[in-house]
Amino acid sequence: MQAKTIALFMALILTAGALQFHYDTQVEYFAERQAFVTLPDGKTLKVLSFGYRNLVADFLFIWAIQFYSATHITNRFDYIENIFDVITDLNPRFKAPYLVGSWIMGLEGGRYRMAIRLLEKGARNNPEEWIFEYDAGFYAYRDLKDLELAEKLFKQAAERPNAPPLIRRKWAHMVYMQDNLDYAFRLWKEIERSADDQLSRDSAFHHLYQIDFERDKQLLKRAIGEFRRRFGRNPAELAELRVRGILKEIPRDYQGRDYRYDPESGTIKARRNYKWKSSY
Amino acid sequence: MKILAIARNTFREAVRNKVFYLLLFFGVFFAFSSRFVSMLSVGDQQKVLMDVGLASIHFFSVLVAIFTGINLVYKEIEKKTIYNILSKPITRLEFVLGKFTGLALTLLVALASMALLFFLFLFVTTGSFAPRCLIFFGLLYIELLIITSLSLVFSSFSTPILSSIFTVTLYLVGQVLWTFQEFKTRLHEPFSRYVATALYYLLPNLDKFNVKNEVVMEMELSGGRLLAAAAYGVVYVAALLTLAVVIFRRRELN
Amino acid sequence: MMAAIEIQGLEKSYPSTFGTRRIPVLRGINLTVEPGQIYGFLGPNGAGKTTTIKCMLGLLRPDRGNIRLLGRDSNSLESRRHLGFLPENPYFYEYLTIRELLGFTGRLFGMSPAERKRRVEEVLRQVGLWGREETKLGKCSKGMIQRAGLAQALVQDPEVLILDEPFSGLDPVGRKELRDLVLSLKHSGRTIFFSSHILQDMELMVDRVAIIINGRLVREGHLDELISRSVRHYELVVEGVDEKAAARAGLSGERRDNRTIIRVETLEEVNSKIRAVQSVSGRIAAMIPVKLTLEDIFMREVGK
Ligand SMILES: Nc1ncnc2c1ncn2[C@@H]1O[C@H](COP(=O)(O)OP(=O)(O)OP(=O)(O)O)[C@@H](O)[C@H]1O
Ligand SMILES: [Mg+2]
Description:
The complex is a heterotrimer of chains A (280), B (254) and C (304). Chain A is mostly helical and 280 residues long. Chain A has a domain at 179-280. Chain A has twelve helices and two strands. Chain A has a two-stranded antiparallel sheet with strand order 1-2. The N and C termini of chain A lie far apart (89 Å). With 254 residues, chain B is mainly α. Chain B has one domain. In chain B, helix 5 (92-126) packs antiparallel against helix 11. Chain B starts with a helix and ends with a helix. The model of chain B has no long low-confidence stretch (mean pLDDT 84). In chain C, the strands form three sheets. In chain C, strands 6-7-8-3-9-10 form a six-stranded mixed sheet, with helices on both faces. A four-stranded antiparallel sheet of chain C has the order 2-1-4-5, with helices on one face. Classes of the chains: A mainly alpha (280), B mainly alpha (254), C alpha/beta (304). The interface between A and B is medium-sized, with 31 and 34 residues. The complex binds adenosine-5'-triphosphate and magnesium ion. Adenosine-5'-triphosphate (ATP) is lined by residues 14, 25, 43, 45-51, 88 of chain C.
């Protein structure tokens, strides 16, 4: 009798499984769901989750990860800011949601400003962390091409405790990229001074060399222009600029060597050239 | 008839229990408090009213199901009142079915009274009657029967504390089991995929009974879907009861 | 004639705390209870009485052996139809009244409403709860619970009653009432099997006794047989012999008025003492065999 009952149980549970299978064909789990419409804001959820704020945050987070990797739901980004806002309101010190949320917003959803807002919130709530502003700066630079914003973010990241030297370099690089050459030069000098690894030193040297070159180039360009206005031709060599009293001194490159001058076109070339900016 | 005697007795014991009324009271209380919550919100007050009301009824009726299920079955074994039944010409099958019928009746009364008060309240405050909520109550009842059967299975071999933990855990898992569908596609190792698939089809999948949103937002609910959900519930309950009988037959009563 | 209860080679063990081995509790019980008997099941705490009874009711599964109740295997449902059972320390649904409990029990036997009503009233009177049947079981005293338990065992008027420690919790009046009830049930042809520690109560009513110790039956038999086969000593009451003459004839004993009471251990000795009395022209006024009580037997077996 027991064997028959067990067989009956098996038959029933298999039937239940089959019905489940059938049911799944009738329901589109994600599309039909309008769950976010009713997702309360973080403050309300904090109250509603009673003592289990972190747990609720975890659940929401895990759920969000599942949901946002369901690529077939096209409108899935409509509420993403709200959702991650709630998650990070519930547990502001839970770091993964800021990072993962911003990946999803940015890399998958192409919403980089939103991603940066989330990361800035992460930085506000976790002042000891540099990673949020670093990531944000990265999005600003690489994806938004907003050098000013990237500079601001890298600067803030660099000023967090324990920020790795890389971030200072990114910051200084942003300053350089905006042609803020004197400021960039000072920053890189500072980096060179405090560098304790070869990479930093090399990087600082390359930048200093390039910045120095770009400043000299501007100076020389102006001087050559002046020369041409007065004499109707390019100087035959750079020394002529001094001889004619246009420049007090002919600038040399960062290593003290002469720049190469082409009298034909009137252009200056350095021995080294770093093509960070496409125009150089 | 013997099944009915046991059912009647179970029902009688349940409704004479103070905790039963306490839970019922809270369910009704929270349903009513939706009035105040809805006053805090802007705009669609009826929606909030229904949201909070249905959620409280859901929550407290699940509590009633877990509480009465475990309490009544386990107590019977723990306090040895079960000797008085099984020393009579009663099979273990009759015992399980009797207990289940009694609990089902208790839940029906609990849910029906909460639902009735909810409709009354809704009518008095908004002047409208939302018959679609009946769909939710119907499916909720099936969900409650699954929970009761789960508690029957667990208390047929375990202590009440463990049984409550198991039942609550399975209930929570059952609520989010649908995410397994997505989760599965993320597992690359074949073995864990098999396990996930097996769990998906074996564990109680309770999401389909939760149509609160669909009901409140007046979203489409196809008859086929409701029918499949109901059929699933009935078959699952039958499976659990069979399992409870299998375990109970093996069990010695010390 | 078919035996009311027949137990053959019953063995039962429980798993040890960690389930690593099994601890034997019953080690081969054989006993037969004839219909119409009052059968006492006696044993110290932990001897295995309750375990035996639970096996009879199918609440526990024996490791070995079989049990027949009124000729039916104890695993069958039918065997329980004509069985009344009072568990040890019974406990009932707190929320029911005594009457509701009995009604419920009647339903479990599938009794018709009219029959139920009649029987409930009858057993309420039998166990002395008449007039108190509306009390909630949660509010009953221990003695009332015990009586209610007895009442529910009697509802379907069973052929065989199995009572585990029916006397526990009863006051002297209650014990007397219970004895009378059991005796009257016996007179109407019922079989009663019960376990107890209270030897006086047993001695006053049982036909047969089994003594179980450590999972084995060490004594089993008719109460009379057990007791008469176990004469402890004899007392000779001698008259017409003065103290000095008695002393001379070796008839020393306790002196009361003009009688001497002599304690004699064996029948041989009885004969030789009688001859000695005659030799001093004395007269035997009485010879009393002093029997063992159940308690003596019990204490002796437990002491072994
Ligand atoms: N569930 C159990 N698990 C393990 N051992 C048990 C269990 N139930 C009983 N025992 C053991 O079996 C033995 C017999 O127990 P049983 O209850 O049959 O004794 P009893 O003769 O009825 O004693 P009492 O006079 O105290 O009622 C005892 O040693 C007890 O410890
Ligand atoms: Mg006992």
